[in-house]
Specification:
The protein is α+β, with helices and mostly antiparallel strands and about 450 residues long. The chain has helices at about 35, 40-45, 65-80, 100-110, 150-160, 160-175, 195-205, 215-225, 240-250, 265-275, 280-290, 305-310, 325-330, 345-350, 360-380, 395-405, 410-420, 420-425, 430-440; strands spanning about 20-25, 85-95, 115-120, 125-130, 140-145, 180, 185, 230, 235, 255, 315, 355. The chain has a five-stranded mixed beta sheet with strand order 1-2-5-3-4. The structure holds S-adenosylmethionine. S-adenosylmethionine (SAM) binds next to helix 3.
Length: about 450
């Protein structure tokens, strides 16, 4: 055993790949200024904290979020180095703001860790609850992250192709919790949702300086072919029996709460709604208006009609009733059961309903949407004022991604400088690309 007092940003006295497990309880932004709080005790015992590497947000030490993130990244990079491959780290964290939470996520990812689950810890009851990502939660969080196997990392770094990408997904699925059960109910495991798997993959690839060579909808289509999709979650074939068994012994399945706070979460919410029930604009609107009350400041809010147009399909009654609406109507309306897709009674009931496109159509829609987003990004680029007061995150993300792919790092930096600090710090995806762009330009690449 070895007990030492030193900065986690420099662990050179510990050899590479020598540690089996790490538990860390790091500072959370500017909540507590440890060295300052210790001044009295330190004066008493005659030892002072070396504050240069103290990972906090503190004005008198001239440390903002960027400095905090840099120090956390240095510490996590050291943890990654000393931890054995295929091993785990638990990060306890009190999440007080979205921006600090994003800094931690980004630092973890940059260091090479992959997050497998995030739970909130109820200290009184000693239970854990899953975090529904979009919300700022004022609780202690337990983040479980792993260091991928050497084989997967080597492939990503030296022989990147689609197979390397699927090797990562295989391994990721094998590490994720199979189920999350609480009080006899089965909860959706957030990390098993296709959107989060894609996000993890994109973030992990960025660390190696590569972009995922397919669009989100192409990825989802292939995901559905390669793996088993159950209750909105992805499983490896051999995991299915254990999952089904646990499902059988549960009272019900609880879906994750989804907070609509920007365009991306609004699209997810609509998708969930329309998958359950293809419906008309009039049916959707009242609920949608209720959901958007938590919309973020600085984030432009598109009209519901524009969101539907850009991401979904409406049945106009011209051709046969699409499968998605047909199966909903025939399983929910006795009198429409078993009708032909061209039956006028079915058409009358199906007309004007919005539905989720099938994977092939989804790819066309995504391409069209991406084009529109990039066109709007051009208007941000040509904006000559000092600050872009309101912007669309989805436009910024698409623009940053495209600029990154074109190695146009300066555009990312220029636009980032025009954004309110909050917009950048509160979005992990923008922040990652901005930080990477800064590193690239500093390196003179
Ligand atoms: C949330 S507290 C941990 C509290 C501890 N688990 C306990 O129960 O007493 C975070 C700790 O990280 C320390 N810290 C800050 N920067 C550090 C660094 N670079 N290396 C190591 N520890 C650091 C702080 O001094 C503080 O003691």
């Amino acid at each position: 055993m070895c007990v030492s007092t030193q900065s986690a940003t420099d662990l050179r006295n510990i050899p590479d790949q020598s540690i089996d497990y790490i538990f860390v309880d790091p500072p959370f932004g500017g909540n507590l200024n440890y060295s300052e709080l210790n001044v009295l005790v330190e004066a008493w015992i005659g030892v002072r904290t070396a504050t240069e590497k103290e990972a906090i947000v503190n004005e008198s030490q001239s440390k903002g979020l960027n400095e905090y993130r840099r120090l956390m990244r240095q510490a996590f990079t050291e943890f990654y180095r000393v931890l054995k491959s295929n091993s785990w780290m638990t990060v306890e964290f009190h999440n007080s703001s979205n921006a600090v939470w994003n800094s931690i996520q980004e630092a973890l990812n940059d260091a090479g860790f992959v997050v497998a689950s995030v739970r909130t810890l109820d200290k009184k009851k000693g239970t854990t609850k899953q975090l529904s990502y979009a919300a700022t939660v004022k609780h202690d969080l337990m983040i479980s992250a792993y260091k991928p196997s050497e084989a997967v990392e080597r492939r990503m770094a030296t022989a990147f192709d689609v197979n390397a990408l699927w090797a990562f997904v295989d391994e990721h699925l094998s590490k994720l919790p199979l189920t999350h059960q609480a009080r006899g109910e089965l909860h959706t495991v957030a990390e098993r949702q296709p959107v989060l798997i894609f996000e993890r993959l994109v973030a992990h690839c960025l660390r190696f300086g590569v972009l995922v060579p397919m669009s989100a909808s192409e990825f989802y289509a292939q995901l559905a072919e390669r793996y088993r999709l159950l209750d909105g979650m992805v499983f490896l074939a051999h995991q299915v029996p254990a999952y089904t068994k646990q499902k059988g012994s549960s009272k019900s399945i609880v879906q994750l709460a989804l907070f609509v706070q920007d365009e991306e979460s609004a699209i997810r919410w609509l998708r969930r709604r329309l998958l359950d029930k293809p419906q008309t604009f009039q049916e959707l609107q009242p609920d949608f208006m209720r959901e958007v009350k938590t919309w973020r400041r600085f984030e432009a809010r598109p009209e519901l009609s524009a969101l539907l147009e850009a991401n979904f399909l409406r049945y106009e009654g011209k051709d046969e009733v699409p499968n998605q609406i047909h199966s909903y109507l025939s399983s929910n309306h006795k009198d429409l059961r078993g009708l032909d897709k061209a039956d006028p009674r079915l058409i009358a009931k199906a007309i004007d309903r919005w539905y989720v496109p099938d994977p092939n159509k989804a790819q066309d829609i995504e391409k069209k949407r991406e084009k529109a987003l990039l066109k709007e990004f051009e208007t941000y680029r040509s904006f000559t004022g000092r600050k872009l007061k309101e912007s669309r995150l989805e436009v910024l993300r698409a623009g940053f991604r495209a600029a990154w792919a074109a190695k146009d790092y300066q555009t990312i930096i220029d636009i980032a400088n025009k954004l309110p600090e909050e917009t950048l710090q509160e979005d992990e995806k923008l922040l990652t690309l901005y930080d990477l762009a800064l590193t690239r330009t500093e390196d003179g690449v």
